[in-house]
Amino acid sequence: MADATYNLNGGFKPTIKRLADLDGPDFYPTPAWATHALMESEKFAGEIWEPACGDGAMSNVLAEASNPVVSSDLYDRGFGEVGHDFLTTERRHDNIITNPPYNAAEGFVASGLRCAGHKFALLLRLAFLEGANRANTIFHKAPPSRVWVFSERITFYMKGAQVAGSGTTAYAWFVWNKDHAGPTELAWIKPGFKAKYSGITTRKRRVSDLLL
Ligand SMILES: C[S@@+](CC[C@H](N)C(=O)[O-])C[C@H]1O[C@@H](n2cnc3c(N)ncnc32)[C@H](O)[C@@H]1O
Predict the structure, then answer these.
(1) 8-27 tens-digit pLDDT
(2) How far does the centroid of ligand 1 lie from the alpha carbon of residue 76, in Å?
């Protein structure tokens, strides 16, 4: 399926905003280090479903852990099962991990609660914690078991965009655990994953890459 959001005025400015994410299918592959950060922080037992897999950027890292990985996407990104809508699915897997489209994050939470047998983890803006509507529909009813706050910035680029600049948005891994009862735990991902998995040395990193 054609992605009408790729050429917005011919100019994508990754340091400013994910321009295409407001009403498009929102295809922003996740940098590998951000997925490694989750897998080295949170334990997952059993198979993992990546239900919005894009070109497999996240699935490929998940597959490096010992868990079997199933991948699907609503759109054809050349990877995984195509045409599967996570918002309406009734499929179930032990664990679900993805970076959802920005404009459907709440729907992905609802599907994760319905379809994960054990845990599901969504990479979301830290600001997802805010908002009266989400407080009523998500956080008071089914709060995450743990929120892993990134201490380094993640920069998202549309597929094929030139990699330059650094991120301005704070992200976190939101993890729901069906076996967890009790308050949400707030935890911080240790700095260093970006350098370890993207070949960037500490000296080369910009000050703006760190959340100060
Ligand atoms: C931000 S991209 C992330 C891709 C991949 N998860 C990653 O982290 O590299 C969001 C993906 O969600 C897919 N998508 C959008 N709506 C969807 C839906 N309703 N069901 C399944 N996938 C969807 C898009 O095609 C896109 O590949």
Answers:
(1) 333 333 333 444 444 445 78
(2) 10
